[in-house]
Design goal:
The protein is built from 9 helices and 17 strands. It is of the alpha+beta class and 346 residues long. The protein has 2 domains: 226 residues, Rossmann fold (3-Layer(aba) Sandwich), CATH 3.40.50; 92 residues, OB fold (Dihydrolipoamide Acetyltransferase, E2P) (Beta Barrel). It starts with 5 loop residues before the first strand and ends in a 17-residue tail after the last strand. The chain binds adenosine-5'-triphosphate. Adenosine-5'-triphosphate binds next to β2 and α1. Pfam families: ABC_tran.
Length: 346
């Protein structure tokens, strides 16, 4: 299989009078797995459809390797797409579904059988040839849909929320299966998801989108630890913010907002010299399975923290966040470089 780099330059899409995608630039390296991540309506599916050729560009260009795709119809782009709904032919068997794209390309019956058997082995579904697709589980159907997309050796695989119809356990196991398959084939892959956990677990590169724009392109680790702005941070589970005070950790100048995740704010941690501390009254305490989430009303903000034991509302409590878990943002809400701190923190 040949796999290729994808390049988007200046990609802009207007639908009706509305600008849906605005000046998108993106480089996707060959064989990598990229997730388009963002809230509902931010333009993820439109971008995927534009790459597939189903949505025309108003401006810009799309290249796959040396080929310009921009003006090619979908069937000439040779990209494969898998949707949320499995879109299998219900009246056909597994073998017929998988072999259909080969049949359309004039591949002989013997060769089709060989390729279908090979694909079923890759999907760990050997022996399912004769099975009606209506008699498969949701996870099996989605694997067949994936196999049908891959059987023609496409240079680019496009996935539109392929796991979102499946229940949580199947979804988790299919994530690693899909990633393993993608790596073994080395196929350049772009997947749309609104699920940050899914993107963080699967992607080599995440494209975070908001309102038709790309906010950040980075590895999962960088996106999680250094979100580009406060909006990105909130989308990635940073649910607490505090503004600096004289005794807090701080940068050199200007107002700083620190974001932190609830999981990093502890009520029962041993005191640590370099930490942010906030005190207040507990207003809520809910069980989360692996502990408790506690809401604390401090004098300037309501903050969430974790506790190993339940805490009664009304109790006076102090939360502590280690310095390493604080994400600093400047007055314009943009992420600041890592803290360079010399002073002790109260
Ligand atoms: N055919 C269309 N005509 C006009 N507007 C459209 C059309 N298709 C989508 N939109 C609008 O474009 C915006 C982006 O939609 P899109 O489906 O790409 O978002 P998304 O990020 O994939 O959302 P979701 O996660 O909910 O699927 C939305 O505001 C949507 O209403």
């Amino acid at each position: 299989m040949s796999t290729e780099a994808l390049t988007l330059n200046n990609v802009t899409v207007d639908l009706g009078r509305q600008r849906i995608l605005d000046d998108i630039h993106l480089d996707v390296s060959p064989g990598s797995f990229t997730c388009l991540l963002g809230p509902s309506g931010c333009g993820k599916t439109t971008l995927l459809r534009a790459i597939a050729g189903f949505t025309p560009l108003s401006r810009g260009e799309i290249r796959l390797g040396r080929r310009a795709l921009t003006h090619l119809p979908p069937e000439k782009r040779e990209t494969a797409m898998v949707f949320q709904s499995y879109a299998l032919w219900p009246h056909m068997s597994v073998e017929e579904n998988l072999g259909y794209p080969l049949k359309l390309r004039g591949v002989t019956r013997t060769e089709r059988r060989r390729k279908v058997a090979e694909m079923l082995a890759r999907l760990e579904l050997s022996g399912f040839e004769e099975r009606a697709v209506t008699k498969l589980s949701g996870g099996q159907r989605q694997r067949i849909a994936l196999g049908r997309a891959l059987i023609i050796d496409p240079p680019l695989l496009l996935l539109d929320e392929p796991l979102s119809n499946l229940d949580a356990a199947i979804r988790r196991s299919l994530r690693s299966e899909l990633r393993r398959l993608q790596k073994s084939l080395g196929i350049t892959t772009i997947m749309v998801t609104h699920d940050q956990e899914e993107a963080l677990q699967m992607a080599d590169q995440i494209v975070l989108m908001r309102a038709g724009h790309v906010v950040q392109v980075s590895t999962p680790q960088t996106l999680y630890q250094q979100p580009a702005d406060l909006g990105a941070a909130r989308f990635l589970g940073v649910d607490n913010t505090v503004t600096r005070t004289p005794q807090d950790p701080m940068g050199e100048s200007g107002a700083v907002t620190f974001g932190f995740r609830t999981r990093d704010a502890h009520l029962d941690a041993p005191p640590c010299p370099q930490a942010l501390i906030r005190k207040g009254r507990v207003t809520e305490c809910v069980y989360t399975g692996d502990g408790y989430h506690v809401l604390i009303d401090t004098h300037d903000a309501e903050l969430f923290a974790t506790s190993a034991t339940p805490v009664a509302p009304g109790t006076f409590a102090a939360l502590q966040v280690p310095e390493s878990a604080l994400i600093p943002f400047g007055p314009d809400d943009r992420h600041l470089p890592p803290l360079d701190r010399h002073e002790d923190i109260a």
